[in-house]
Design goal:
The complex is a heterodimer of chains A (163) and B (665). Chain A is 80% helix and 0% strand. Chain A is mostly helical. Chain B is globular, with a radius of gyration of 30 Å. The chains are: A mainly alpha (163), B alpha+beta (665). Chain B: Pathway: Glycan biosynthesis; sucrose metabolism.
């Protein structure tokens, strides 16, 4: 009986310790705690990841969002053909995010994080430039570009922890 | 998450029935109670579980709030804010915040880079590879008639990655010939990158190169390499020591905080000594090692130096400067007429800082002359107040100079870099000496050899009243060397100094925060506007701003304002600069090298230097012009200056013919 009780207490302590986990601690140091938590917890490997691992999870989110946005751009060519010029610019910018920025961030996070920081910041810049090219209120991508900016802000904060 | 508050009463309620149930009245209570204890224990345990959970939650909340406050106070530029460490301003110039400010401008015309604009950006006389990405300067040296330059290079893309050592040679530090790659990532100990390193000359004239390798497991180690054939003046081939790595991260140092070994210097005990930057928590440090053969090392217990709250020290440089002579010194020189410089590149802020101090050879330590501006503190001295990082000096035994190389990255978007196919430049090499007049700062100046690029020149002498702008007709204005002298009219100076009610402006003024070149003061700003469109819709002013300081003294600032350098909204456009010492009797002097997308400005003979990257969209090719301006409200400025057209340096890809051609000059 005392054994069971001790086991229960241990479990309780362990649960308590688990709640102080690295994901929670890390996300508290970013500009968007809620977004950070939801992004990281959606990947089960986050529970046992170090800061580099968490950074990589987020860089993959950037890649996924970038790819999704490229898909939306392709759709928008048909639904909003008058915005072709701006969509072309966005396509170029988002290709940079997905091909160049993400690639640089992944290799740099593991060895020389300041280059990953530049790449992540650039991803946000590319998204902003794409968005800014549309006449006011006419962007078909606003939600996506805003999300990219937010994710980049959070990712940058985590990459800076590695400096 | 559900608060355990709601749960406690329930478990308590569960307990109550257990205790009150059958405890008094029922004769069957005895048997009843004997089965209950297990459930009771379970309940108690759950209670404890939730208490522990709740306590843990509270504990983490408190902990992280505290750490946010601490981080905010540590903010590197000294201003305390409540924002978290994640929002450190000025950390990386490319910030989303800055971009949105720019997008708020009236320049809402959708903007795209075209090839004409992008190809104009390539420089004519600054070192850059034919294509792709470059960063830190590596192992610069002079050997058998050739200046050698190595550099961090990505052979595959215009972004960082796959880093190897590029190589080029020159007779004069200006006309370069590209050579094949010197070292590639072909060993386990540099599989993830052949990173930065430095050269040392041994007594017999041979060369050793120490460099950082990022191993196949991304651990930072130091490796030894040397020329395969010392009879080859071009040092084309390099051999890596079979016993590499020669140094691995020591106990207490993390595997990714150990890089960029320096040139070695001789100790009085006859050993070679090097230093390597690192960090312990947030304290930047420089480790010291002694060696006799560059293969085995003893780590000193002492550090060369350390400064709290400066973060990782990259590209540490350590060298002597003469207190009395305007010349360079070999790295091993020491003595009473010598001070030592410790320089480090701050990973956190991407700023190079240095300090002047005293070296103690007996224990390999160094202390700064002025601890209030110690290496890495935000107010400490910088080689350059603009875009300039990972710099490295070497002793040029050919001409008895110490020469400084600096990596000048891009300030544009990665899209543009990928589109134009290249990224980064090196600054024009500069000589470095101690300012023998002030004793408190270094003085840098473009190497003399850059003058060999000067073509036609025009001389001007003019007086410009307050609020004037003068077009200086020099023809093409994208490749220029300007040397200028300015004087403020005595009446204006006396008026400001004599007026007790005139505000002490200098204490509040900074290039970065005081609004740029359009904000007019009594005695400034005045200077040149380079890469300016005739409509002035794009321009880059380089100027002095003189303000009244404390104790009726004038304080002079030297700034470059890139805020209107381009219509583009995806480039970084700061106002850069700093105060500059001006001694009694000195005129105000500036030199500006303009080379397409780079502007290098030198104030007061190189006491304050500013490198800027600018990306005009209209003020390019024939439309780039030069203006002289005086935005002061009171002062009349007398300007006396020379403007030279600069030739291209015709940097050559590797070929036998090119090398032979250069040897004949």
């Amino acid at each position: 009986m005392t054994k069971t009780m001790m086991m229960m207490v241990m479990m309780a302590t362990l649960m308590g310790v688990a709640m102080c986990d690295i994901v929670d601690k890390t996300c508290k140091q970013t500009p968007d705690y809620t977004l950070c938590l939801s992004l990281l917890r959606s990947d089960p490997s986050s529970a046992s990841a170090d800061t580099v691992g968490l950074g990589l999870i987020l860089v993959n989110k950037i890649k996924a969002l970038g790819t999704q946005t490229l898909g939306q751009i392709n759709v928008a060519y048909k639904t909003k053909p008058m915005l072709k010029r701006q969509l072309d610019e966005c396509k170029l910018r988002y290709k940079t995010i997905v091909d160049a920025d993400v690639h640089t961030a992944i290799i740099a996070i593991k060895g020389n994080p300041k280059f990953a920081e530049s790449a992540v910041v650039d991803a946000g810049v590319e998204a902003s430039v794409c968005e800014g090219g549309f006449p006011k209120g006419q962007s078909p991508l606003t939600g996506l570009t805003q999300k990219m900016n937010k994710i980049c802000d959070v990712t940058r904060a985590i990459v800076r922890m590695l400096l | 998450m559900a608060s355990s508050d709601a749960l406690l009463p329930i478990s308590a309620r569960e307990e109550d029935p257990l205790l009150s149930d059958g405890s008094r009245s029922d004769p069957n209570a005895e048997t009843h109670r004997r089965r209950r204890p297990v459930k009771g224990l379970l309940a108690v345990s759950f209670g404890l579980l939730f208490i522990a959970f709740y306590v843990a939650l509270i504990a983490t909340r408190d902990g992280s709030t505290r750490s946010n406050v601490d981080d905010a106070e540590i903010k590197s530029d000294g201003t305390a804010t409540a924002t978290s460490r994640a929002r450190l301003a000025g950390v990386s110039e490319k910030s989303n915040d800055q971009l949105w400010k720019l997008s708020g401008d009236r320049n809402t015309v959708a903007f795209s880079w075209n090839n004409s604009m992008l190809s104009w950006q390539r420089t004519a006389f600054h070192f850059q590879p034919e294509q792709n990405w470059m960063n830190d300067p590596n192992g610069p040296l002079f050997y058998k008639g050739w200046y050698h330059f190595f550099y961090q290079y990505n052979p595959n893309a215009a972004v960082w990655g796959d880093i190897v050592w590029g190589h080029a040679v020159s007779k004069d530090l200006i006309h370069w010939v590209h050579l094949p790659l010197a070292m590639v990532a072909d060993q386990w100990y540099d599989a993830n990158g052949v990173w930065t390193g430095s050269a040392t000359f041994l007594e017999d004239g041979s060369i050793v190169m120490l460099y950082t390798g990022s191993t196949d497991k991304s651990v930072q180690v130091q490796n030894l390499a040397y020329p395969e054939d010392l009879n080859d003046p071009l040092l084309l081939k390099w051999v890596k020591y079979s016993g590499n790595p020669v140094l691995v991260p020591p106990p207490g140092i993390l595997p990714k905080d150990f890089r960029d070994p320096t040139t070695a210097w001789k100790t009085s005990a006859g050993k070679w000594r090097i230093t390597i930057g690192s960090k312990i928590n947030r304290t930047g440090i420089s480790l010291v090692y002694d060696t006799t053969d560059f293969k085995t090392y003893e780590k000193l217990d002492t550090l060369l130096h350390k400064v709290p709250n400066t973060g990782m020290w990259e590209c540490v440089d350590f060298y002597p400067v003469s207190k009395t002579l305007v010349k360079g010194l070999d790295t091993s020189v020491n003595g009473p007429d010598v001070k030592h410089i410790v320089k480090a590149s701050m990973d956190d802020t991407r700023i190079d800082h240095y300090a002047i101090g005293t070296y103690f050879d007996s224990n390999g330590t160094w202390i700064p002359d002025d601890p209030t501006i110690d290496v890495g503190i935000s107010t400490s001295l910088r080689y350059d107040y603009g875009k300039f990082y990972a710099s490295k000096t070497f002793y040029d035994q050919n001409k008895g100079r110490r020469i400084l190389w600096g990596w000048i990255g891009e300030s544009d978007s990665e899209s543009a870099d990928v589109q134009k196919g290249w990224s980064s430049l090196q600054g024009i090499p500069r000589t470095v000496v101690l300012d023998t007049k002030t004793g408190k700062n270094l003085v840098q100046w473009p190497v003399e050899e850059v003058k060999s690029l000067r073509l036609s020149s025009k001389k001007f002498d003019m007086e410009v009243g307050p609020g004037s702008l003068v077009h200086i007709d020099v023809g093409s204005a994208a490749q220029l060397d300007i040397e200028a002298e300015f004087e403020i009219n005595k009446e204006s100076l006396d008026k400001i100094l004599g007026d007790a009610s005139a505000t002490v402006e200098a204490e509040e003024f900074s290039c970065q925060k005081s609004g740029g070149s359009t904000v007019r003061g009594a005695l400034g700003p005045f200077g040149f506007s380079v890469l300016a469109h005739e409509s002035l819709s794009e321009q880059t002013p380089v100027y002095f701003y003189v303000a009244k300081g404390k104790d009726s003294k004038l304080k002079t600032f030297f700034c470059t304002d890139s805020s209107r350098s381009s219509f583009a909204n995806d480039v970084v456009k700061p106002v850069y600069g700093s105060s500059v010492p001006v001694l009694k009797g000195e005129k105000l002097t500036m030199r500006i090298l303009v080379d397409h997308s780079i502007v290098e400005a030198f104030g007061q003979g190189g006491r304050t230097c500013i490198t800027s990257r600018v990306y005009p969209t209209k003020a390019i090719y024939g439309a780039a012009k030069l203006f002289l301006f005086n935005n002061a409200i009171d002062a009349t400025i007398t300007a006396s200056f020379n403007v030279w057209q600069m030739n291209s340096a015709f940097i050559h890809p590797y070929s036998e013919e090119a090398v032979r051609a250069l040897s004949r000059t």
